[in-house]
Amino acid sequence: MAIPGFGEIAEQLRRSTVLVLSGARGNGSGVIWSADGAIITNAHVARSSQMRVQLWDGREFDAAVASRDIRRDLAELRVNAANLPAAPVADSSQLRPGELAIAIGNPLGFVGALTTGVIHAVGPLHPFGAQPWVQADVHLAPGNSGGPLADARGRVIGINTMVAGRLALAVPSNAVTNFLASDPVDAWLGVSGAPVRVPRPGTRAKAFGLVLLEVEPDSPAANASLLPGDILLGTGEKSFASLDDLATALQGSGPRLVRLAFLRGNYERFRQVTVQLGAQRVPRSAAAA
Predict the structure, then answer these.
(1) Known catalytic residue: 120?
(2) Active-site annotation holds for 73
(3) Which helix (H) or strand (E) element contains residue 180?
(4) Of these residues, 16, 29, 44, 69, which one is catalytic?
(5) Is 182 known to be catalytic?
């Protein structure tokens, strides 16, 4: 079914989508949320405190991370620019299955690539916790993360985040609104990892762990001497049972210490390390130099 003005709608959405330049670790996407320089992307895209973004017209800006929430995989970037083409935002609670969905992003080096599909559902999805997701059958690829998922009128209904089976999952736009309205948090540890089951000495039981695949240079994890291959088990007070537990342990604002238990090369020897979080924060009103 033809949609009147679809070409213009798609073009406006492209102008509100940015390329987030994350260096050698791969690029992602973002969406201009306000004309004064606020850009929303995924927390897993904004893995450095400073990065660059490229606009639709080729201009590039330094960007600073103003706030990050790893539980919802959201980050707010700030650039020193004005009169940017901000995308209109829709109320994601009004979405219904069968509605048209449009995704814009920069997958595999293709800037401003567009794909369409339909909404399947809005709600939690096992095994990704109790948080709601906008679930659509649009085709996403590496580089789409952080870009907008929009309705037929070009209004943002979610932030594209990952693929589960044949469905694309996006953080609902209402969750982004709540994220921006809340107090800034800096829960950045600076790692990427994968869940593992760790044998417990003397038993047949296995404990949940998170094996570190990457540790960002100059990150809180690196400054605490954590290394790729280490397995996080919990805090000094509680063992982890899921990825949500790690996210909960890291939540907070401002400088603070978190003590983590981990394994390194020996399943029988537990180690502990104190990590300094939130040592540097960028106020929402600040812009990158």
Answers:
(1) no
(2) yes
(3) helix 173-181
(4) 44
(5) no
